[in-house]
Write a structure and sequence with these properties.
The structure is a single chain. The chain is an all-alpha fold and 344 residues long. The protein has helices at residues 2-23, 25-109, 117-133, 136-148, 152-181, 187-192, 196-208, 216-227, 236-247, 251-273, 278-282, 284-295, 303-310, 316-343. Helix 10 (251-273) crosses helix 14 (316-343) and helix 12 packs antiparallel against helix 13 (303-310). GO terms for molecular function: Hsp70 protein binding; ribosome binding. Keywords: Chaperone, Cytoplasm, Nucleus, Repeat. Residues 68-83 have a biased composition (Basic and acidic residues).
Length: 344
Amino acid sequence: MRQKRKKEEGTRMRNLVDNAYACDPRIKKFKDEEKERKLAEKKAKKEAARLAAEEKERQRLEALENERKRIEKEEQEAKEQAKAAKAKKARIKNLMKKESETIATLIKDYDYFVVDEDDRVREMEALDRYLQRSSLESLQYFREGLEKADSKEAAKILFAKEMDQMREKIRQDAIAETQRASKKKDDEEITDDWTAEQSQLLIKAVNLFPAGTASRWKVIADYVNMHSKTGTLRDSKHVIKKVKTLKKLDPSHKQEVNRNAFSKFDKGVSQSKSPSTSSTQSDPTVRYNENALRTYPTSTPERWERIAEAVPGRTKKECMKRYKDLVEMVKAKKAAAQSKTQTA
């Protein structure tokens, strides 16, 4: 009974307190304020998160825009630099062309300082090579020197000096290239990497430039480097070592190598002599060129211009090259005949 009354009293007191809380406006106000405060805090946090996200997105977009502008600026600067470089290159090219034409005219007026036709062709080719390899400053210096020369002899000395410097530079470049290419190889490896083309050119050069030729091994090395399309550039030491290696070959093998070396020249000479060969039939300009060479002798004024006009589809330089090839084939044929006679 006592427990029952105690329980009822507790229930009554709890209801009384609940009614007091429900009826007291201060309690209601306190709860409403607490609820509003929590809602305000929640709303403030949400707003702060939104603002932070917007700021982060704004910074990201701003960084992307700055990067885009930077790339566009760099691309624009690169385009402007490329355009300026192209314009400068074109301007230099035009200046070099004018200088080359002026130099060629001046040298031509002096008849290339030679009398023999073969020498004239050689000097013309040397001049073309010089004009192609030289810088604008070198061309201007050469042209000014020719214009200031008070005599043909002074101009000839200047011309010879420039040609010698060019040949020496070609030789030095060839040696430097060879040294770079063979830096990590020993002498035996350098000797073994001769291509078949270079070996044949070496044999031709040895026969074309016999003992007694001034600076023979340098001349032979330059010949191999000039005519070879593949392989490492050679200098005098490489040429001498390769020649010693070839001398150790079996005699029968040596004869076979010599025949292979001059086979192209033999074929070229036989074709030039026989107009009925397939080469002459397939390229009629060869026959026109040879006929023009006979029609216009060395004493003809403006000889090569007239020869070029007589050969359809060929320039003066191509006609000169054909003439040089014919001369080399004849020389090689004679050298091959002498070599065969000696081996026999």
